[in-house]
């Protein structure tokens, strides 16, 4: 592939970064490709960190996105364990923490997100963890083995899933929830209620509306104090209250940032030499009529590929429909679209049955999202339908005799 540039630096050695360097070579780019990563490890998959890495004892090598030899074979220059500290698109350079400059006619930012901090006393005590990277997960493995009471703060994706995994390992788990139900903005009330019952039936002490006031301990955490004054023993605390985009580099280079780096449908930022993809990037969604920033695996892969193709003018506009999965208490959940935009929800099936259940969320008939326990084929049909703006009636969702593809009107799903 001939191009008007001969060096690309991908900043961020996570999933999007790893996909991007592969895509550069797949597109036939023969110039210099640098991958700059703050973490010392080769790019690895994060989803197993809250699942099989803890429960099945996977080794770090089993998480790698590409095998180690991939980078040599594809002439990818690795700068790992060195965060980029400054982006100078005008000079065509990226500066690393140790002062080195990496040449970059084009830059693709894939710096992801960082765990949000709680901001309570005691947060810096040993025994207080987040769950974002491999060292976090390794520490949590040790926690699971130690047999101490674990307090998980936050009932979102990570908190809920981690509570489930730790409970499955026999840990004594308390889940402190800010709201009433686990993952409620994503799952809605009925599915959230079912998940809450699942948590409790597996021995998790799930406490709705229980904000944390302080973490107590001298040399390490020993207890947590709730806003209502309740004190609970804790040998470890895991904070899972969401994340913030790692957008400092972009902001420092004068690139437009608003809860993430703003990109167009081709992953282009406000600077023509700089692109962004993955958890970090906020893109215009035609399907939902708003800008979205999606913190899910599939989005990171697809958006990174779009960004690379856009550098060569071969990209289709990106309008990814959010899709994610989670595994909790031995059941696989899938979530498509933006369920919280629905004003009505209808269910088919029964989550307690082997076949599971599908919840379809709609607004004046227009499908906005779906949640499934099991029922993968049907969830996939809704996912495809979302891209085409399909409508549905609640009756047809509930009526199992109607094939879900027939129930989705406006397009053959
Ligand atoms: C525990 C866990 C479980 C998950 N489970 C699921 C799941 O079940 N399903 C699902 O769809 N998604 C899941 N995800 C989300 C998914 O892993 C992310 O969407 C995906 O990793 C995003 O890829 P990314 O490359 O944008 O960001 P990341 O993979 O986070 O990579 C960003 C990288 O950039 C690096 N970086 C940051 N700043 C700099 C800098 N200045 N210089 C250089 N490097 C920098 C970071 O250190 C990091 O390595 C999970 C995430 C976590 C943490």
Helix and strand topology:
Layout: E1 7-11, H1 15-26, E2 32-37, H2 52-55, H3 69-73, E3 76-80, E4 84-88, E5 93-96, E6 101-103, E7 106-109, E8 113-115, E9 128-129, H4 134-146, E10 150-153, H5 157-168, E11 173-176, H6 184-201, E12 205-207, E13 212-217, E14 221-226, E15 231-233, E16 236-239, E17 243-245, H7 248-252, E18 261-262, E19 274-276, E20 281-285, E21 290-293, H8 297-311, E22 323-328, E23 331-337, E24 344-350, E25 356-363, E26 366-374, H9 376-387, H10 394-398, H11 404-407
Helix pairs in contact: 1-8
The structure holds flavin-adenine dinucleotide.
Report on the architecture of this protein:
The chain is globular and about 60 Å long. It is of the alpha/beta class and 413 residues long. It folds into three domains: 7-114 and 243-311, FAD/NAD(P)-binding domain, CATH 3.50.50; 128-239, FAD/NAD(P)-binding domain; 330-407, Enolase-like, domain 1 (2-Layer Sandwich), CATH 3.30.390.30. Helix 1 runs parallel beside helix 8. 46% of the residues are buried. The protein has eleven helices and 26 strands. The longest helix has 18 residues, at 184-201. It has helices at 15-26, 52-55, 69-73, 134-146, 157-168, 184-201, 248-252, 297-311, 376-387, 394-398, 404-407, and strands spanning 7-11, 32-37, 76-80, 84-88, 93-96, 101-103, 106-109, 113-115, 128-129, 150-153, 173-176, 205-207, 212-217, 221-226, 231-233, 236-239, 243-245, 261-262, 274-276, 281-285, 290-293, 323-328, 331-337, 344-350, 356-363, 366-374.
